[in-house]
Amino acid sequence: MPKSETSNCELTPLTFNQHSFYLLPERALYWPAQNALIIADLHLGKVQTFQRAGIAVPGGVMEDDLQRLSRLIANYKAQQVIVLGDFTHHTSGLTRNVQSTLTAWLAQHKEVTVRVILGNHDRPSIAALQQFNIDLIQHSLTLEKITLVHEFNANEQAARKRNDNAEQKTQFNLCGHIHPVVRIPKSNLGNIPVFAIYQQHAVLPAFSLFTGGHRIEIKKTKAVYAIAGQHIVNLK
To answer: Cα-Cα-Cα-Cα dihedral of 16, 231, 62, 137, to 10°?
Structure first.
């Protein structure tokens, strides 16, 4: 079994629609067949948005997040980075410094295809995002019966079930949006980011460390994998 280059711990494999993925403690998925890193909710410029609103928050978050992503690209020699929405946080946060930092980061990884599925936070900033060397995807991307989307829509999935197209029925969704977390009873660990696995979709934790979280109900999931430092812990 492969090991993480950063922690030397065994990676956690999962199979969706007969495709192998690896859960990474750095809040990402690695898809070997596509040589792709999949992340969600990077929220670039969030700190700057808060600061412009007069909220005192420490800087350096964007740089730290991008450095962490750079290490993953190097470790897994990834040829693609696929972002499941909310690549940016708000138009007000796309300051000159943020834009120049992102431009420089993309230049460092010019051999990597960066594909961004637009999330609700991204849509007001589409015009600004078009200047960067990234592929913007309006709604979803389907590769080998794996649909990558920002937010899982149960109504859309039900419609697919009613569709006679067998291929649509068998698609599995990877998404973000809700920043799933859990709280361990009788512990002082606070909210723990998790990969939440359901029957027809999986929700990735927010990649950025500067995000809140939505507490999910473990009993409603098929499986839950928590991030504990440099390890992945199966909670169900």
So the answer is: 0
Length of the chain: 236
What pLDDT digit, counting tens, does each position of 95-118 carry?
888 899 999 999 999 999 999 999
Q: Which two tokens stand for residue 114?
A: 């960066």
Q: Could you report the per-residue pLDDT of 169-181, keeping only the tens digit for each?
A: 568 999 999 999 9
Of the candidates 214, 169, 171, 170, the one whose C-alpha atom is nearest the C-alpha of residue 196 is 214
- For residues 178 and 203, is the Cβ–Cβ distance under 8 A? yes
What is the signed CA dihedral for 47, 50, 56, 57, rounded to 10 degrees?
-20
Q: Which two tokens stand for residue 131?
A: 């200047």
Integer Cα distance of 211 and 213 in angstroms: 7
Residue with tokens 């750079």: 70
What's the Cα-to-Cα distance from 209 to each of 47, 57, 82, 147, rounded to whole Å? 11, 13, 18, 25
Which uninterrupted H or E stretch holds 203? Answer: strand 201-203
Q: How far is CA 159 from the centre of its chain?
A: 25
* Residue 194, H or E segment: strand 191-197
What are the structure tokens assigned to 154, written together? 């149960």
- Cα-to-chain-centroid distance, residue 191: 18
**Extended beta strands in 44-189, E state:** 80-83, 113-117, 135-137, 140-143, 146-149, 172-175, 180-183
In the block, residue with structure tokens 């098929």: 222
